[in-house]
Every structure is written in structure tokens, then in C-alpha cells.
Amino acid sequence: MSNRVLSTLAVVAASLCAFPLAAHPAADMVGGEIAAPGEVRIGGVLDGRRDRIDFRDVSVTINGAPVGLGADGHFAATLPIAPIYRLEIGGAGVFTAVQTFGHAELRDDACDCLAIPAIEVVARKKGRIELFFGGDTMAGRRYFEPSLGQRQLLFRESLAADLDRLLAPMRPYMESADLTSVNLETVLADEAPGPRLPGKSITFFSPLELAAALKRAGVDYVTLGNNHIYDYGEPGIVSTIAALDCAGLAHSGAGHDETLADRAAEIQLGGTSLAMLGFVGWEGSNGAHQIATASKGGAAFGTRGQVRRSVERERKRRNVPVLQYHGGAEYIDRPSETTVGRLREAVEQGAPLAIGHHPHLVMGVEVYRKALVAPSIGNFLFDQQHPRTHVTYAIRAILEKGRFLRAEFVPVGVVDYRPMPAVGAMRERVLRRLFGFSAERGTQLAMSGGHAVVYADQRSGMGASCHRRAADEFTLANFAPACDSTRLGRDVIGRGDFAMAREGDAMERAFMSDDAGLEFATRDGEAYAVLRPEKAASSPALFTHAYLRDVPAGAYTVRARVKLPVAVRVELRIKDRPQPGEQPSARWRGDILETRDLPAAKAWQDVSFEFVRPDEAEGNTRPFRPILRFVSTAQSGNLEPIAIDDFEVISWSINGSSEADRWHASHVVQ
Fold it and tell me: β-pairing, 74-80 with 39-47?
């Protein structure tokens, strides 16, 4: 917790068992009691076998309500139906654990209840500390100047409250850790503090108040070793460090010269002395010289030699070095040999944790020499619009006497430019990327509740279970790799269940509408989208805000469930991203590929379309936008809403030749 962090930096003025988790029948967890209308039975089990935890001193709450906990770790309660359930586990002798679940992903028809998978609880023993890592963080650009038709999130007159709202969903996770860190990928200043660094086309500055907001949310330390800390040269370094010092945030990774940039932030946690190191992976592009030298400021340059020297230095000082490295190409799925070499070098010299970022996409992890290497943990608080950058995770890592013990990966979805605990389809997409790409690196992950886990001994895994049918709706109970099959696919949208479309004042930006208002609703815990026509004889349309890019050529299926007040003709339209020089057109004005006639019905109806996308660039197709338009075939128009759920765009391009392929597959046809 932040108030347990004692920084020795003078500049700071003002962050399981080695076997699978137990599986418990839902009926044992929840019991046979029948819930009243508007309520639901929910239950699960805590697993404390590794540390032989006595559950008499442990407490469980769900959505703030205390839940009865048995001596064997089972818990159950009857609660009001909600779209989201936040579970908190506490007690003086355990690390606080927070997990968040969506209604649909817990549903168990066998008991007509919600069943939470087994959650491991870790004892807070002497010499153990917990570190939380979030990814790329900024709060400028589109937060103040949104794209056309989008909401503004930050206002100068209410900055403190606005920033607190953006960080509120993840605050329970951050403030419970002994040390919480993010990559501050921005200059802090009220306005551009000077001219852009020559050669920089994209620069970031975020309000000075961001430092204090991060501190209030539980952040203790930020790494500045990235390619945006020197966007405005020396004035940006000055204003950023002053704001961090004023807020009481420890920092490292940048400075007024290379000696200061390479200096670690030394932080005492109980009997452990941490040395937090931050590095950027390249000197700069297009003439933008972003690294610190003997005569200028900038970010610390993380060559393999410098990583080795810095980690060796801190080990000689009897510090535990923790490395964060910002490098590699953007928007790639796998780390370069250079990135892997530098992260492993840190481990070889004694670092128990080597954490990477910059690609904006999450990558797989590995346990290397009993230390954790995570080449890219993706975005955290960031305003990128492409959906691939919204699928991310945070890390809860536990060290024991300075050695890596265990890491828990918290699925995160960036919704409305803010980090939120991922549930439903977004959780599934995070986990499938993490499990699949980790399998390629020889790492077998396990599950604890809705989070992935890995251990220093790495003897735990998911076992041999697999999922078989395309019709299987994602639940945590059936999360598994695909079985051998003739056809494997993945949903390239990964959020069309709308489970995270609305939470508090956050509103999904990934979808747009035409000829109708777009709303998001829940009923009996189920989330869905609503197209509300704005005039008679409307032909409402739902489509993705961004073009789907970096997606494979080949066969596709678009499908959804709909509730229709009148008979309609459903059109599937596809709009290719315009090429340079092409005349732009309205976002919804794509080419009609197929149509389906559906009757009016109060019940959900399925609609699906098949099509093929051509290869235009090394196996990928041209970026495109899928559009569903509803044209009334009734005699008279009306203003009744259309409900849409489970909107999926499935690419059938996975060949199934490896374990990683089978993890990536969310859909199976035999």
C-alpha cells in the first residue's frame, strides 16, 4: 500500500501450489437455495493450500457486501443481480486480492447460479512484497480534444475530479499493492513547455495534475525511460520532474544528463531495498535524439551493456534491481531478439523482474532462470483508438526475499480511454493472447479466478481440457484451448458482448451508429446495445468506430443476436479503408455484401453472414469496417428500438498446428 512505501530518493518532496487450482462443483459452492426475483446466488472457493492459510482471519466481500466464508474456503451469498461483481479478499495475514467479474461469464446453468472459479490466496509472510505494474500512461491529446462526435473527458476547471474518475476502476488494485508503478509516457505541463524535439511528429504532454491523481490512485513510482519524456526537450524534463517531486512520486529512467537518467529510484519496503530502473531502447528516429548524454537530458539508453552495468551496480549495493524497458516495434505480437536479449540480460545479472512496454499490444511472458520476463504489458491510461490497443493487462508480482515467487496477470480493457478490469469477451481476448503467446515461449500459465498466474517453479498448467463448439458462449468455467478441429477462428472485435460498454460514467467508444441513437443497457445482468431510431422510416446501422486492421485475409463470419420490433432486412455492409487519394465517404456507406430477411420478434434471433477477404499485404487483408444496417420491410415505419448482442467478426484463419494456435481460437467448428 502506498503509505507503506518509504523512498530514499532525496528529490522526492511531497505506489500457489505447484499444481493446478482445485475445481469445485458449482452446487458445492452455492448450495440449493433459490434466489428471489431480482437476486442471484453467487459463490466460489478460496484456495490457500500453498501457504496453509487459516480462513478464520480472512474476509470476503462482493460489491461491498460481506459474504460468509467457511473454514474450508467456500463462500456463498444471495445478492442483487448486477452486470459487474467486484470481489475483495482481505485479512491481516494475506495479500489483499481484488477480482472483478461479469454476470454472463459466471453463469452456471447446472445450479441456476453464478459460480466463481477457485481463487488462490497468498499469505503475507516476512520478506514478501507485492508490486503492481500498469502499462503506458498519459492524459493529454484526445482527453481534451476528442475526435468529431466523441465526448471530452478532461476539463481544466475540474481536472482533479475528472482524473480521479478515469483511474477509479483500477484504484482498488493499485492501492492494495506495496509498490505500484506505471510507465509515464508523457511530459507533464499545463501547456506545451517549448518547441517539439526536432524530428518528433507525435508528442505528448499531460496536465501537471496527473502526477497527484496517480498518487491518489495508489501509484508510488513511475518510470520515465521512454520515447516521449523528451518530446519538448529540457523544459519538459524540468516540468515533469518538478510535478512528480511535488506529488511525492518516486521516478527514474530520465534526467538532465546520462548519470541522472541512469540513477535508480531506491525504495525501502520492509526489509527489502528495491532499485527501480527505467530504460528506452533506441536513440531516436528521424533525428529526434531522445536519450540522455553527458551534455544533455533525456531518457536512459538501455543497451544490453548498460542494462548489465546498471543491474550489476545495484546488486553490489545490496539492492534488488527491478527493470522496466521501453522498446521494440509498435503493434507487433512478438518481441524482437534485441528486446528479449536486454530483458534476459537483466535477469542474468540478478533482476527478479524485467517488464517491457512500447508496442501497445500485450505479449506472452516467460519464466527465465526463475525470474519473470514480460516483454510488453500494453496500454493503461491511454487515448489510442484502435481496438487492438485496448486489450491489455496489469501485473501483480510477489517477491520473496528479493526473488520472484509468483505473478498474477489482471486482464484490463481500455474503455473510454480509461483502464477497467476486463470482463466477458474482452477478458477472453486478453487471456487468449496471453496464454497463446506465452505457450510459444514455453510458459504454462494457470488460472486463479479470472486472472492468469505463473510461478517461479512453473510446474502448474491448465491441463488437457479443451473447448469444442463454435456455439459455446465464453464463461470462465469453459475457458480452455481449442480441441483438434477442422476449423478454428477468433473474433477480431472481441467486445461485441457489450459487457464493458457502460460502467459508471464510462461509455464504449468502439461502436457507432447511423440514423439512430446508440445506447447500452443491461437486463437481469445481461448487457447489450440498443439502436433507438430518431425518426420514422429510419434504417438504423451499427458499426465499428475504427477500421479493423492487421487482420488476416481469408474466410470470415459476421454474426449477432437481435430483437426486432418490426420485420427488417438486415444488410451486411463492408467499408474498406480509403486508399491515399480516394474520395472519402460516410462511415456507414459500405458495399452491401449480403442481406437477410427477419420477422418481428420479442425473443432473440440469430443472424449471420459469410464472406472472404482478399490478401493485400503479407497475409493480411485491407483494413475494413463491418456495418449492420436494419431496413424495415413493414408497411409503416416506427420508432421502437432494436436490441443487438454478441456482435462478432470471426476470422477462420487459424491453422491449429500449435498449442498457441489452439489458445488463440475462440471459435471451433468440427
Answer: antiparallel
Domains of the chain, start order: 2-10+127-419 (3.60.21.10), 26-120 (2.60.40.1120), 502-654 (2.60.120.200)
Q: Which residue has the cell 524534463?
A: 237
> Which amino acid is located at 577 in the chain?
R
**Residue 210 zone, left/alpha/beta (φ > 0; ψ -120 to 50; rest):** alpha
E strands present in 63-178: 65-69, 74-80, 84-90, 97-102, 107-108, 113-115, 119-120, 128-137
Say which residues have a Cβ less than 8 Å from residue 195's Cβ, sequence separation at least 6.
232, 233
Q: Which residues are registered as beta bridge partners of 625?
A: 575
Q: Which three cell numbers stand for residue 496?
A: 461485441
Instruction: Name the pairing type of β-strands 526-533 and 119-120.
Output: unpaired
Q: Residue 158 — φ and ψ, nearest 5°?
A: -135, 35
Three-class DSSP labels, 569-617: EEEEEEEECCCCCCCCCCCCCCEEEEEEEECCEEEEEEEEEEEEECCCE
How many CB atoms lie under 10 A from the CB of residue 129? 23
Instruction: Please name the amino acid found at residue 418.
Output: R
29-81 tens-digit pLDDT: 555 556 778 999 999 999 999 999 999 999 999 999 999 999 999 999 999 99
CA atoms within 13 A on the CB side of 400: 12
How confident is the model at residue 587, as a pLDDT? 85
d(C-alpha 574, C-alpha 576), whole Å: 6
432: its cell numbers? 487468449
Q: Is 546 within 8 Å of 585 (Cβ atoms)?
A: no
Grid coordinates of 162: 475528472
Phi then psi for residue 351, to 5 deg, are -80, 130
Of 67, 56, 94, the closest CA to residue 176 belongs to 94
Quote the distance between the C-alpha of residue 274 and its chain's center: 26
Helix, coil or strand: residue 237: helix
DSSP state letters, 632-668: E-SSS-----EEEEEEEEEEEEE---SHHHHHH--EE
- Which residue, chain included where needed, has cell 439502436? 531
CA 591 – CA 587 distance, rounded (Å): 11
Q: Could you give the CA distance from residue 170 to residue 447 in angstroms, rounded to a whole number?
A: 20
pLDDT in tens, 483-519: 877 789 999 999 999 999 999 899 999 999 999 999 9
Residue 471 vs residues 260, 474, 646, 668: alpha-carbon distances, Å: 57, 9, 11, 8
- Determine contact, residues 567/634, Cβ cutoff 8 Å: yes
Spatial separation of the C-alpha atoms in residues 352 and 135, rounded to whole Å: 18
Task: Give the Cα separation of 343 and 275 in Å (integer).
Answer: 16
**Amino acid letter at 239?**
S
What whole-number distance in Å separates Cα of residue 492 and Cα of residue 650? 6
Q: Kindly report the pTM of this predicted structure.
A: 0.93
What is the average pLDDT across 472-484?
Answer: 87
User: Is 116 within 8 Å of 101 (Cβ atoms)?
Assistant: yes
Three cell numbers at 659? 498449442
